Amino acid sequence: MSSFEEAETEETVTCLHMTFYHPCQEEKMMFRCLNFCKREQVRADETAKFGRDSNVCRYNLMDTRVSRIQFSLQFYRKLHSSEYCFEIKNLSKRTKLTVNQTELGYLNKIDLPWRCIICFGDYQILAEVQQGESVDYFETHLHLAEAPILQERPLPSLQPVPETGISSSIFLCQDKSPTEMDENEP
């Protein structure tokens, strides 16, 4: 037998890719303690914490507006399933955390969707889960975004628009009230 045949079966590892963005990163360097572009192993029984306190958090954000512990990610396997997932929990008493527009208050938690955007304050994080089979650990792979992950979009008009496509708010802004006209008048 060759050494290839005797080698242990290689298992794939679940990897959480996280892309970070903050508008002031250039001048304030709040991500300077994060290890970008290198995969990092995290034991499956550890909770990955993100925040300002380097004694408690594995991933440090160097910003006084970030809570000591902002949020945590817990790796787990769904009951009666071979699927591995992450649970995200907001650990900040002051700042709400948003996951794909679902707002989490202090100690609220939800399953992390396989692809989502996590927001708090001016921070935007794109999280993408790459499935694997390993039960002992998972990996994180951090990236730095140069442009906002979420683009500002104007809010849609709250006024209903009739089928004609002309908003009734146009008429409300005019000085005189609408007047009737004969179809035959020019």
From TrEMBL:
Subcellular location: Cytoplasm
Annotated FHA domain residues: 49-121
Keyword Cytoplasm assigned: yes
Alphabetical list of InterPro entries matching this protein: FHA_dom (IPR000253), SMAD_FHA_dom_sf (IPR008984), TIFA (IPR033621)
Primary location: cytoplasm
GO annotations of cellular component type: cytoplasm
Family listed: Belongs to the TIFA family.
PANTHER family assigned: TRAF-INTERACTING PROTEIN WITH FHA DOMAIN-CONTAINING PROTEIN A (PTHR31266:SF2), TRAF-INTERACTING PROTEIN WITH FHA DOMAIN-CONTAINING PROTEIN A FAMILY MEMBER (PTHR31266)
Record's protein name: TRAF-interacting protein with FHA domain-containing protein A
Lineage, broadest ranks: Eukaryota, Metazoa, Chordata, Craniata, Vertebrata
